């Protein structure tokens, strides 16, 4: 915060936007649960404002990414679209009627924690069979340790393990390719459910893991279209955006700008 004020001497900070994974109640400024925090129902906005000395807005990080697409990206000319993020977890954001949709308590659209297999793989939320448990970094790294014959107690970091797994898959390693193929099938199922529920005009697949082209190969997207009821429905358009960290910052800035503008207009 001191660094921010040093960059803009004499100017008051009107709002700060912060995004984090998990169940975030934007209206109340609380976090019901996040894999990054200990405890539940935390007054996170209040704690941040006390620490930073400026108004703070918090939201789910996938909502921030969706705001970035709405304000600065492919969603600027669209009234209805969805964003699916695949990184440390699996997230989703949704724009309907040109506005970000959050749900009644701001905790909706947890695509990563929809169930795709009863009594399936363990998710970091503590439940089993979540979509995230087959797609996220930790899920793929968990399978990679077995497929590549690594000792889990002496394994690489999840990021390094994924890079190794991807390299092996590209080189034709059968088990490595099968891990990505299975993840792609689960992604196709999750995307088909999304389309069936919300009928978006565009689905944007975003996040650093979009570098792994196995996840959005032609057969994955074809499987998604096959799982959707076909009667009278044109194929859903899908775009892949392998953004870096800057897009998350753009979303946080958009969240702060919305709050500052509402405050200035008294809305």
What would your notes on this structure say?
This is Xylose-responsive transcription regulator, ROK family. It comes from Rubellimicrobium mesophilum DSM 19309. InterPro entries: ATPase_NBD (IPR043129), ROK (IPR000600). 41% of the residues lie in helices and 16% in strands. The mean pLDDT is 89. With 267 residues, the chain is α/β, with parallel strands linked by helices. Helix 5 crosses helix 6 and helix 7 packs parallel to helix 8 (218-227). It has helices at residues 2-7, 44-52, 61-72, 132-135, 137-147, 158-170, 174-198, 218-227, 246-265, and strands spanning 16-20, 23-25, 30-33, 56-60, 81-86, 90-96, 99-101, 202-206, 237-241. It starts with a helix and ends with a helix. The longest helix is centred in the C-terminal third of the chain and has 25 residues, at 174-198. The chain contains nine helices and nine strands. The chain has two domains: 2-62 and 247-265, ATPase, nucleotide binding domain (Nucleotidyltransferase, domain 5), CATH 3.30.420; 78-243, 2-Layer Sandwich (Nucleotidyltransferase, domain 5).
